[in-house]
Amino acid sequence: MNNKLLGDTMGTELMRIGVSLPNTLLDKFDEIIEKRGYSSRSEGIRDSIRSYISYYEWMGDIKGHRVGTVAVIYDHTKRGLSNALADIQHNYSHLIKSSVHIHLDHDNCFEVIVLDGDGEEIKELAESIMALKGVKFSKLTTVASNEKI
Ligand code: NI
After folding, report:
1. Ligand 1 ion: nearby residues, β-carbon < 5 Å
2. Tens digit of pLDDT for each residue in 14-40?
3. 102: CA distance to ligand 1 center in Å?
4. What burial class does residue 70 get, using C-beta atoms within 10 Å of its C-beta: 0-12 exposed, 13-18 middle, 19+ buried?
5. What's this model's pTM, rounded to 2 decimal places?
6. Same domain, yes or no, for 48 and 104?
7. Residue 50's domain is classified under what CATH number?
8. How far is the centre of ligand 1, averaged over its atoms, from the C-alpha of 52 (Å)?
């Protein structure tokens, strides 16, 4: 049995899981949870998973006419990645109004893609980019195009 029952908090069973992470990622995570004052690494991980879930649930609500951006940081030296990113953008060229590319350092690029079109297609485009190996950061932001701010 992998998952061990640890206790009961408000009717929710706590499950123990084992996760393998690169040490650099864990060091960075520990640094952040210490700064933010989390009492334990588990608490930080629970919070991160909640944010991850709410972000993807939020993505599920992107419908109708939207304007937005996808910001991406990726390693252009990863074989095939630049081509894969270009292929995706050509497949959705009807949504893309503009893009900005900054060469961050020897390996890393920062790209912001400006979008205007169907929300579900915008989400598809963003998910295709996020799924690429070598993409280190990606963030989708959208707003309903008729929303008054
Ligand atoms: Ni570049």
Report:
1. 103, 109
2. 899 999 999 999 999 999 999 999 999
3. 6
4. buried
5. 0.70
6. no
7. 1.10.1220
8. 28
